[in-house]
Design a protein that fits this description.
heterodimer, A: mainly alpha, 2 domains, 6 helices, B: 2 strands
Chain lengths: ~140, ~500
């Protein structure tokens, strides 16, 4: 399955690469050469994976997959919430969520998360003066 | 001797209070982070890159910090290997054999001490090699033109692919993925956008910090969810971290041999710590003959791979600094960091920025001494740190990764991208596609394309120019040989790749 995916991706990359036309060539090779090479590598890798598939791949149980899905969703929610909710609150929330996914007790997890978020804020904003978002919600 | 005089100047830089402090901080942080299961050197460096950019120190100081983290994390890795039998990287697998056997026999203290001392000996030996050989190689490499550089990079890719665990073709597909990521963004020559999917954020290309943290750190967070166990608890450390003089003396030559092997293997692209430690271990096994108790807790079985591993780290810095071509995932990340700091490694580095090179070399002596001084008394503390429950540790690492990614780009888009790469990295691990070649491809891709196009522009479109000089031809032959070697070996010998314990591939 992964092999087929690779072959298709490789073909798509090559197709896209043929559209890299420039009006006048600044150099004899142009912007197409490397993408076409890459596409060939994808197709080659995919073909081998198709011909000789790995037999020892074990997929995790549905329960683990569900927890992984939750973790990915938590990451994406974090990305969306960060500019809006601010660094401290969104980090506390996402770290709590992850801790619970790793089977931490809820109360301890959220306490540890808040401490961590506060510590990181102090380290980055105060000590290193790297800006982290405060949150639009609180500015308005 | 010219190098010696330069090195003395280098010590003048390395012993500045700021740089001493940074070397200490680097090895301290490196040891701590490298010890935590599942993080390892490549994550440690990637996560800390934005911090080094932000503290606003001069480039040579930032480099001292980063390299300190690099070799510190190699040593930290052996602490968890010896105590918990969880080698965080493939290069520590051999140490686990006798190191953990010694722990089970209640001799964890001597094992840790031997590992610290061997790391020190291997490290200092190989810094000597670095000082000796880097200028020679740089002088030779000045004659490299674009065609030779292109061939050299092809060799770096094929060497890493052939040494990667598993199939060469899969590793090449990983390299292809990295090269593809490198093409995303505006083409530097013709300024047309490539593979940007119409997103403005992608016009600048993929940031390697985002890709590296996604592929390694985020996928690790996902992977560890599979491991439903509550995590192994550290074996209580019994007795003091002491080693008898007699025992130490018995490992003297072992350390020296390990250091030399590690250094030589480290210089070669692609090979790195894994091959170095395996080679050193099997050499010692043969040298010891019947007197050895290898596999049952022989102290030489700890000293040899540890010396070799640390020596290979320094060896790997030679191609990175003098050619500007890294041979492994971790050194590729270092190259990305150097470029970000405005340092362009290559044959001219030694001439144009001698302070940087010699200051770094001298600071590595300082750092290695710190490593020894810190670790003998602090092992007890590190052992306690290993008992931090996983539900605090891993989310904490994730939070650090978020901050690091946000700090480089300052946009939520990169956080989404990072998550995407985390999923991709997880799937790649599942289907045994190695991750290190992706980073190498991403960092080297632009350089490779630039040199290819420059070579072709100079020749007027004649592809023959790539195979025109003796150096280029040699490099092409080496590249082909390194790809063909594993295939030939697989044909000749019966399959025995199952005997290696499964670890996270990380070079």
């Amino acid at each position: 399955m992964i092999g087929g995916l690779l072959v298709i991706t490789g073909a798509a990359l090559a197709l896209e690469a043929t559209t890299f036309d420039v009006a006048f060539m600044t150099d004899p090779v142009g912007p197409k050469a490397l993408p076409l090479l890459v596409a060939a590598m994808f197709v080659a890798g995919g073909t081998v994976a198709l011909v000789r598939p790995r037999s020892d791949v074990t997929l995790p149980s549905t329960e683990v997959l569900a927890r992984m899905g939750c973790a990915v969703v938590a990451f994406l929610v974090y990305a969306a919430a960060l500019p809006w909710l601010g660094f401290f609150l969104s980090t506390t929330l996402v770290v709590t969520a992850l801790s619970v996914l790793y089977r931490g007790p809820l109360l301890h997890s959220s306490a540890a998360a808040a401490l961590l978020a506060g510590g990181l804020w102090l380290l980055f904003v105060r000590l290193l003066s790297l800006p982290l978002p405060i949150g639009e919600l609180w500015i308005r | 001797m010219d190098s010696l005089r330069h090195l003395v100047d280098g010590f003048g830089i390395a012993l500045q209070p700021l740089n001493v402090l940074l070397a200490l901080a680097g090895v301290g942080i490196g040891t701590f982070v490298g010890m935590l299961p599942g993080i390892g050197p490549i994550n440690a460096i990637a996560i800390l890159i934005p911090v080094t950019f932000a503290i606003g120190v001069p480039p040579e100081s930032a480099l001292i910090l980063l390299v300190g983290i690099y070799y510190g994390s190699q040593y930290g890795n052996s602490i968890s290997t010896i105590l918990l039998n969880v080698p965080g990287t493939a290069s520590a697998v051999v140490t686990a054999i006798d190191g953990h056997a010694m722990t089970r026999a209640g001799r964890a203290g001597p094992a840790l001490a031997a590992s610290a001392i061997a790391s020190f000996v291997g490290g200092t030996f190989s810094i000597f090699g670095l000082v000796l050989f880097a200028p020679v190689l740089a002088e030779w490499a000045i004659r490299f033109g674009p065609a030779e550089y292109f061939a050299l990079m092809v060799f770096a890719f094929s060497a890493l692919s052939s040494f990667a665990s598993g199939s060469v073709v899969r590793a090449l597909a990983s390299t292809g993925f990295g090269l593809w990521l490198a093409t995303v963004g505006l083409d530097p020559n013709s300024a047309i956008p490539r593979y940007t999917f119409g997103r403005i954020e992608l016009l600048d290309g993929m940031d390697f910090v985002v890709v590296t943290i996604g592929l390694f750190a985020v996928s690790e967070v996902l992977q560890l969810l599979e491991d439903t166990g509550a995590g192994r608890s550290a074996t209580a450390l019994t007795g003091k971290v002491m080693i008898s003089a007699k025992e130490l003396a018995s490992t003297g030559w072992t350390m020296v041999r390990g250091g030399v092997i590690g250094f030589i293997v480290g210089v070669l692209p692609g090979a790195g710590g894994t091959i170095a430690s395996f080679l050193a271990y099997s050499t010692e096994e043969r040298v010891a003959g019947a007197s050895g108790r290898f596999g049952e807790g022989d102290i030489r079985g700890v000293a040899a791979p540890e010396a070799a591993n640390n020596a290979s780290v320094n060896g790997a810095l030679i191609p990175l600094l003098t050619l500007g071509v890294p041979g492994s995932g971790t050194t590729a990340v270092l190259l990305g960091a150097l470029l970000g700091l405005g340092i362009t490694p290559g044959p001219l580095l030694l001439e144009e920025q001698p302070d940087l090179f010699w200051g770094l070399a001298a600071s590595m002596y300082v750092g290695n001494a710190f490593l020894l001084l810190l670790n003998l008394p602090l092992v007890g503390f590190f052992v306690r740190a290993l008992t931090i429950p996983r539900w605090i540790l891993i989310p904490g690492v994730a939070a650090l990764a978020f901050v690091a990614v946000y700090a480089v780009a300052g946009s939520s888009f990169d956080l989404v991208l990072m998550t995407l790469f985390g999923v991709v990295g997880y799937v790649m691990r599942k289907f045994s596609f190695p991750l290190a070649p992706v980073v190498l491809g991403l960092v080297l891709g632009p350089l490779m394309e630039k040199n290819l196009r420059r070579a072709m522009a100079l020749s007027g479109g004649d592809w023959g120019v790539l195979f025109d000089s003796p150096i280029a031809i040699t490099l092409w032959l080496l590249a082909i040989a390194s790809l063909a070697a594993p295939l030939a070996l697989a044909k000749l010998s019966p399959r025995h790749d199952a005997e290696l314990p499964t670890t996270r591939e990380e070079t």
